[in-house]
Amino acid sequence: MAADPRFHPAGSPLTLAEAAAIAGGELRGGDPATRIAGVGPLDAAGGAEISFLDNRRYAGQLAATRAAAVVLAADFAERLPAGVAAIVTGQPYLGFARIAARLHPAPPPRPGIHPSAVVDPGARLGEGCEVGPLAVIGAGAEIGPGCVIGPHAVVGEGVVLGEGCRIGAHASLSHCIAARFVVVHPGARIGQEGFGFAVTPEGRFETVPQLGRVILEDFVEVGANSCVDRGSQGDTVLGAGTRLDNLVQIGHNVRTGRGCVIVAQVGIAGSATLGNGVQMGGQSGLTGHASIGDRVRVGAQAGVMNDVPAGTDVVGSPAWPAKDTLRAMAALRRLGQKPGRG
């Protein structure tokens, strides 16, 4: 099924030659001048659309596809039916993503401030910003050029947004410095008070003032309804290019390196540190003050209680190195087996 034009307006069509160049691939078969206007899955794409194969599980669909072209690895190119062009690349998903972004580009900002928005006179907005209905921008906020502030979004006092940031509907930002091209999806909360309190002799809780900020570096994305608490003394920092999925909790003083991927329902407790390129699977958790090295991969639902050295894969709860966990599970299965008849 092609992208619904009500929600995903089409850009300019591409020739197959242009598509191959965008994908960084080699065009095999087909007329380079053939034009494509959209994208679709292998089993539904039509003759003016392009598809891709990046998972051999779906290789069986190649023989019946009716797409104009398919972006795929060289090993699968011969499986395409006659008349379907191949765009061969070592990274089919990336190549397809770049083509799709050209065929269905994100809508540009529509410069202007909606009459129902509330923008403090002390706020500064760069050229070409779009401010949606009922949005609020506080005193001293600085909004870079080309930013989009969605309906009902709140950009608090003193918040700084760099060039090209997009803030989704109902999102809120306070105590935050964001760099260029940061995306905050609908309902996300950035910069609220962290979970810090002291206990009195009488057993009551007294809040410890949370006096830090949230720093979002270039190209960070924060998923819908995710929360990033501000630091208690220092700052909470999400490194350049880091992606948070929906429903992620980042505690105060957490610092991530560049290009981390944090999947849905992950919780990272305060003052934990992640290196570059860390990946955390869905519903995994990280204890406070832990240090996670570069390129660590944490399996889904894993509970990480200790520091993890660089390049390690960990799974289970409590999380162990993946090989150790698999050995332990195998031993446990053997223990649970009924003894054979002698």
| Largest sheet composition | 12 strands, mixed
Task: Give the integer mean of the pLDDT values.
Answer: 95
* CATH architecture annotation name of the largest domain: 3 Solenoid
Q: If you compute it from the alpha carbons, what radius of gyration comes out, rounded to the nearest whole angstrom?
A: 24 Å
Give the N-terminus to C-terminus distance in angstroms: 60 Å
- Described by the principal axes of the CA atoms, the overall outline is flat
Q: Helix coverage percent of residues?
A: 10-25%
CATH superfamily of the largest domain: Hexapeptide repeat proteins
Our count of helices gives: 3
Runs with pLDDT <50, length 5+? Answer: none
Alpha-beta content class: mainly beta
- By DSSP, the count of extended strands is 39
Task: State the domain count.
Answer: 2
CATH topology of the largest domain: UDP N-Acetylglucosamine Acyltransferase, domain 1
CATH class of the largest domain: Mainly Beta
Beta-strand percentage? Answer: 25-35%
Trace the largest sheet across and list its strands: 8-11-14-17-20-25-28-30-33-36-38-39
